[in-house]
Amino acid sequence: MSTRHPSPGPEQAESNRLLSVNDLRTDIRTDQGTIRAVDGVSFEVGRGETVCLVGESGSGKSVTCRSLTGILPEPPADVVGGSVEFDGQSLLEADDEQLRRIRGDRIAHVFQSPQSALDPVYTIGDQLVEAITIHNTASAARERAINLLRRVGIPRADSRIDDYPHEFSGGMCQRAAIAIALASDPELLIADEPTTAVDVTVQARLIELLRGLTDDGTSVLLITHDLRVAAALADRLLVMYGGTIVERGPLEELFDRPAHPYTQALFESYTGCSSRGDRTARRDVPTAGCRFRAECRHAVDTCVGGEQPPSYAVGDRETHGVSCVHYGPDRDPTPVLADAAAARPVSTEGDDD
Length: 353
Fold this sequence. Notes:
With 353 residues, the chain is of the alpha/beta class.
């Protein structure tokens, strides 16, 4: 069972805040024109908190996270608006050297394709030691590297440390990438599908590792398609569709009462072992009004045109917000909420493996 951290109250929210993202907008230029891949995304991550971004492939989760610290290729990508503050410092206004220092010391990334993050001409140990010697003496770096590999579940770490990336399986490369990310003891770990390329035993070990990080005060921004992983780790969920956040709130509230029709559809499709198969987000997502309206069984005329609906509170739960016109003033969300019970995905109680 996941040990969660209570959401901060209004008075302590500002002092507890580590990452603040406001109205983030990112464009990607393609041969077919410019796509608004991230459109007005806002959220916060508190100290020692795990926030999970969930949604279909193509919904904007990875682009959002890569926009935060300037690691999107420019061109074709371009952050065109919004603000990103890390511990009070603007990341979008930081120069390249400042961003390199922050990424090397205070924020770490784990990417969905770990092989692309590992240099094929250097051993796993060389790459770990390089990351560690920034913060440790050379004599202690190798021993710490071995301990990090053991921590992420690499068998025979004292000998495998001298292997090259091509000698590791995909799952072992993923674990090695996590070890490298943890070498600097970051304040914020941004992890893109860190458990997808491993078997269930290793997945359970990585879940315990990530949970232990937040217990030690590290913040985690996690991208996952696996609702069981979200149930085991998340303090709060952000549900993305069409480059926007359509629903947000504490894990238990969203799992108990998914309020947005897209969240309900996403949860309904989850069988307990997989998500929506290989289905990616629709390419013809509307660019105005509700992005999900073309697939929504509750769509009405007011879903069309204008901006994405603002975030409305779900009932009296101020911490649970949904971007849907049915929750606006003088509207009755009862028909939408009637679908919530059938959409509950997996339990947030019990064993995680």
